Amino acid sequence: MIRGIGVDLVDVARFEAALSRTPALLERAFTPAERDLPLASLAARFAAKEALAKALGVPAGLSWHEAEVTSGGAPIFVLTGAVAAAVGAGRVHLSLSHDAGLAAAHVLVEDPD
Questions:
Q1: CA distance 65 to 83
Q2: Which Pfam families does this one have (predicted)?
Q3: Binding residues for Mg(2+)
Q4: What φ, ψ does residue 73 adopt, rounded to 5°?
Q5: Structural contact between residues 51 and 106, judged by C-beta atoms closer than 8 angstroms
Q6: What's the rounded Cα separation, in Å, for the pair 88 and 96?
Q7: Spatial CA neighbour of 54 closest among 91, 14, 2, 106
Q8: CATH of 2-110, one of 3.40.50.2300, 1.10.10.10, 2.60.40.10, 3.90.470.20
Q9: What span, in angstroms and rounded, lies between the C-alpha atoms of 35 and 27?
Q10: How far apart are CA 5 and CA 28, in angstroms?
Q11: Residues at the annotated binding site?
Q12: Contact 53, 87 (CB under 8 A)
């Protein structure tokens, strides 16, 4: 059964401006492994974290670092802490895209079978 669906869209130029205005955002929002990625990939990962929060109903104690996006092909979340607890034994599906100055993420969270 589907527990939640989240979608987020990020304007890459606006995201770049936010990073320029607030350099600490890079460390606050991304794990060390994510920080060296190209700007469009960072924007897509930011969208993924926002979409996950929406799919979970923004649980208390949510930390950006507890939802790292990795890819060795299809993107996946590596969840820890409060985010992992909120998902429990459920499955999380993630789709990312970036083109024409926009980055999008779709997240679907399933309850355990």
A1: 9
A2: ACPS (PF01648)
A3: 8, 50
A4: 130, -115
A5: yes
A6: 23
A7: 106
A8: 3.90.470.20
A9: 8
A10: 24
A11: 8, 50
A12: no
CA angle 111, 55, 92 (to 5 degrees): 50
What gap in Å lies between CA 99 and CA 83, rounded to an integer?
A: 28
Structure-token pair, residue 83: 């985010």
pLDDT in tens, the chain (113 residues): 999 999 999 999 999 999 999 999 999 999 999 999 999 999 999 999 999 999 999 877 789 999 999 988 899 999 999 899 989 989 999 999 999 999 999 999 999 87
- How far, in Å, CA of 106 to CA of 49, rounded? 10
C-alpha distances in Å from residue 9, one per residue of 32, 45, 67: 23, 10, 17
pTM over 0.85, yes/no = yes
d(CA 41, CA 111): 28
C-alpha to C-alpha distance for 1 and 37, rounded to whole angstroms:
34
**Nearest residue to 42 (alpha-carbon basis) of 63, 59, 28, 60:** 28
